[in-house]
């Protein structure tokens, strides 16, 4: 794992954006795996700024999102988050964007997305991490983690961590997520860790050397091309 330590979240976001922009310039038709949450916000802002400055072109790029809530309102959806923070401000073609439909029958969406991953390989997967070590919505589970796209029941702690995104604080009970296999098949992975609540799972990742379904992010230790960017202060 290639670890980049920074002095601030803004510096983490700048370095993360640089890696994504470099990947897009080297392979203009790449498939980007995208994340939501607070962690990628400043990264996406920098991608938008690069595009608006004429320094980046997403016209041949494609994207697939890690996850989406099941049955949420449009204004609370990750689809809306992505439109507001990235898609509406860069020139990625609408037809090149793949994200689960929050309003569609979830089983049909799982089938559609499993088919997508049968024929597509993510070139660069951007990840945040949950305070309990989840990536996408692959929650810790003693019994095992699912490899393909699936419907994931959300833990109470994850619902509480994400409640501030919802106008009424009511987080759906379930989400559709890329599975651990989909994530680990990405050619390269960029994990950005932001926030005090991530200290414990970050330490396990940096020091442990042990892969455990109780901290799904530790499975990234099995991948040959992972870059982790985080603030140095979170690692001590
Ligand atoms: C959600 C998302 C994850 C994200 C995590 C961390 O649970 N499904 O993909 O990594 O939140 O979010 P934040 O970046 O807001 O800390």
Task: List the SSEs and their pairings.
Elements lengths: L1 E5 L2 H18 L4 E4 L6 H12 L9 E4 L1 E3 L8 H8 L11 E2 L7 H14 L4 E4 L22 E4 L2 H7 L11 E4 L2 H5 L3 E6 L5 H10 L17 E6 L5
Parallel strand pairs: 1-10, 2-3, 2-6, 3-5, 6-9, 9-10
Antiparallel strand pairs: 4-8, 7-8
How would you briefly describe this protein structure?
Helix 7 (199-208) links the parallel strand 9 and strand 10.
> Going across the major beta sheet, what is the strand order?
1-10-9-6-2-3-5
From the N-terminal CA to the C-terminal CA, the straight-line distance is 18 Å
Bound molecules: 2-amino-2-deoxy-6-O-phosphono-alpha-D-glucopyranose
- The CATH topology assignment is Rossmann fold
Low-confidence stretches: none
User: What portion of residues belong to β-strands?
Assistant: 15-25%
Rg calculated over all Cα atoms: 17 Å
CATH architecture: 3-Layer(aba) Sandwich
Please work out how many helical segments DSSP would assign: 7
Tell me the major beta sheet: 7 strands, parallel
Q: Please report the first level of CATH classification, the CATH class.
A: Alpha Beta
Described by the principal axes of the CA atoms, the overall outline is globular
Structural class: alpha/beta
Q: What level of helicity do the residues show?
A: 25-40%
Mean pLDDT: 97
Tally of distinct domains? 1
Element order: H for helix, E for strand: EHEHEEHEHEEHEHEHE
Instruction: Compute the number of strand runs.
Output: 10
């Amino acid at each position: 794992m290639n670890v980049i330590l920074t002095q601030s979240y803004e510096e983490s976001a700048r370095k993360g954006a640089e890696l994504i922009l470099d990947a897009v310039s080297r392979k203009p038709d790449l498939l980007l795996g995208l994340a939501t949450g607070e962690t990628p916000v400043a990264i996406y802002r920098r991608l938008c700024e690069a595009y608006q400055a004429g320094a980046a072109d997403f016209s041949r790029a494609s994207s697939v999102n890690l996850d989406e809530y099941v049955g949420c309102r449009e204004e609370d959806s990750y689809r809306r988050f992505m439109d507001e923070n990235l898609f509406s401000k860069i020139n990625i073609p609408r037809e090149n964007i793949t994200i689960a439909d929050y309003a569609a029958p979830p089983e049909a969406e799982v089938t559609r997305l499993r088919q997508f991953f049968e024929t597509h390989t993510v070139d660069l997967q951007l990840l945040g991490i949950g305070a309990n070590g989840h990536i996408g919505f692959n929650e810790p589970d003693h019994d095992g983690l699912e490899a393909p796209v699936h419907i994931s029941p959300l833990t109470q702690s994850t619902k509480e961590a994400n409640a501030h995104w919802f106008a009424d604080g009511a987080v759906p009970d379930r989400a559709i997520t890329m599975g651990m296999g989909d994530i680990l098949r990405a050619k390269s992975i960029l994990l950005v860790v932001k926030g005090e609540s991530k200290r414990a799972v970050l330490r396990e990742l940096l020091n442990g050397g042990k892969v455990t379904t109780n901290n799904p992010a530790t499975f990234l230790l099995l991948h040959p091309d992972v870059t982790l960017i985080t603030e140095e202060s979170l690692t001590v």
